[in-house]
Amino acid sequence: MSLFSVVSDPGAFMELYQPLKVDGVELVVLMSVVLGYLGILALLGAVLPGQTIAGTLLADKTRVYYKCNGLASLVVMLAGLGIAIKFDYISPTIIADRGGKMCTATFVLCLMMSVWLTLRGYFTKENSESLKSHATGNIIEDWWLGVQLNPNFLGLDLKFFWIRAGMMGWLLIDFSVAAKQYIEQGSLSPSMALFQLFCTLYIFDYFWHEEYMTSTWDIIAENFGFMLIFGDLVFIPFTFSIQAWWLLSHSVDITPTAAAMNVLVFLIGFAVFRSANTQKHKFKQDPKVKIWGKPAKAIGGRLLVSGCWGISRHCNYLGDILVAFSFSLPCGISSPVPYFYPTYLFILLLWRERRDEARCSTKYKELWKEYCKAVPWRIFPYIY
Ligand code: NDP
Cβ(216) to ligand 1 under 6 A? Predict the structure, then answer.
């Protein structure tokens, strides 16, 4: 179905909407399933051991503390699901069979959650930086961007938890779609295998380094509103897995050379992404840390100019864009649909870089100007 037919013919649009359509009872059942998933994840997070990491120092000199046991939670969750599948308690294609409906149910849940959190933020009597109201008075803006920085529920930091749930949800959807292909077609196609391999490595790596999340822009600077609630739990899992859905109904002839090139793009992107984020995180913990074998160089002792951070001011974005691109390459170039994720990420990170630049310029003032002179490239060295 072309974009033109969807725009010009409302009937065609309704056809596109069909997989998302869900009736009342089904909606309640599916929302309960999603709530069950969130409940189990919260329980695992509470009982499993994990390092407690102090978050960034907030404006009122307080910090939020994060228990980083996402990897343990993921492993236990996957083991539990494996056992449940083995004994036929659940089907491995439970998500893949009703992906659109599941997406609608998660969306409705996120909508309700965002309204509840906006109201809770409006009426809060808390005055710490993380819990006080940051309301602007514009209801739409407050709902979209959130009112509180780090709202919690029963001691659980909702923002940190929500990203965990979304990243794990992405992996569960991928696995379920792979299981559907395996059951229906008797094997995994090479393209599906490559996509699954890259995503699995990326997501496990994310949880291996979960503590690094505690210093990212979303965690330190964004309030928790619909944008993040929806972005983390609906957008990430349901759209980042588009390639897998697409590969279910399209076969791609991938040559060994193309597959090798694809692996290379992934490895280069991953190395840049991981090194940049690790270097910054280690530098924040110890400004004298060694980077590429030499003591870290920093402007004013605060802005790292060694390693990746001396190549471009957001080398981590460059790595992430390459990785995203490598997720889509197994689908070939016959359709733009599987390229949704890298295209979206490219636009998002370009916009995010501008916002982060403005924030850093206000925070670091002259030091930031000096950093921009020392490292003129924003993301892509010699290009941008
Ligand atoms: P960063 O992790 O790059 O954090 C930016 C912050 O780092 C700045 O605000 C500043 O904060 C600090 N900083 C910037 N430059 C320097 C420097 N030279 N030396 C020391 N500190 C510096 O940004 P994000 O949180 O946006 O991204 C984190 C990762 O998440 C990235 O790899 C990104 O690609 C990925 N990401 C992925 C998304 C996806 O959908 N797949 C979406 C968004 C991000 P401070 O005040 O602490 O100094």
Answer: yes
